[in-house]
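Cross-check.
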Amino acid sequence: MNFVYYNNMLKKTIAFLIALFSFLVFIPFSFASTLTLSPSSANIPQGSTLSVSVRLNTAGESINGVSAYLSYPKDKLEVASISYGSSAFGIAAENSYGGGSIRISRGSISGAAGNVGVAVINFRGKAQGTAAVSFIGGSGAPKTSDSTDSLNLGGSTGGTFTIGPPKPSIAPQDIAITNVLVSLISTNSAAITWTTDAESDSEVEYGLEEGKYILSSYDKTLVKEHKMVIGENLTAGETFHFRVKSKDSVNEGVGKNMTFQLKGYSLKVTVLDLNNKGVKDAEVTLCSTPIRKLTDEQGTALFTDVSPTRHLVVVKAQGIETSKEIIVKEDNLSEVSLTLNPVSPNDNTLLTIFYLSLAIIICLIAIGVIMLRRKINTIQAPIHNDKNTILK
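Predicted model, tokenized:
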């Protein structure tokens, strides 16, 4: 009797030990995958964002899907966004967040193994304090072999984050711009250089009028010594207004308005009298700019850096003014001659007397015609009355 009793007790003990061994050995191997957050702890300034990676360690098992459900204190944190750029699971199944809950489900046709990425959660610090983020029920990691769950939820670890004071705001400051120079000027381009006290990008705005900078050139490289070569839609001889600008991620500097003139072409104007001799000290005006010059001993005035287009040349000398429209071509030198045609004072007097006499004659003729018509009307009136009397 006692033997049978002890034999039964021994069998029960062995069965219990076998069951315990199976729980301690086989069960952990069945649920070996774990979810983690990286980083698992960090400081987040209030109002700033921290990127936290959700990762799955499959413990060597091939996993064809994952569900990562998390909770977070909605009064301390908010989810700005979730991205999946580096996820090992390319199939999207579930994506929702807000109100203290996050639900992410992804899949993979071929399966994934190892310590792999699932998603990246961008947390924003909402209020100062400590925020615990945890994986909760509903999370899972089905095996590729038989789709049974391999996730050890109890062994998965979340994170603890401290939301601190917001970052101090930095007021923008002006970047100092100095040594603005224009060089290498040609008929269609120019180089502009300047210096800044901080590494920043380079921009030149330019146009034909101050404040109306319709063109620009830009270089994003951050430097202190800046150089920009502009050469787009530029006309030889034109004067351009420009300003330089530089900025970094926070600050900006803007230079004052400046000008430069491109090289142009030469124009030689010769002023002659009626004897085909040069007129000295004649005032010659090139009206496109305008530019004024006096002629030399030979009666010539030389203009440089003239744009290749139509120009009006006006000459004043000896009380006479004359003008001529000319076209400057893209050539080394364009030449034009203007001849003065003086009119003597006596000729002016005779011409005036002629026009006055002509006007007086025309007036007298007009008065005579009017008087003649009145006389004719006076003579015809009685004859008309007599005819009326005879008819009666």
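Residues 1-28 form one domain. The first strand starts at residue 34 and ends at 38. Passed to J.P. for a second look.
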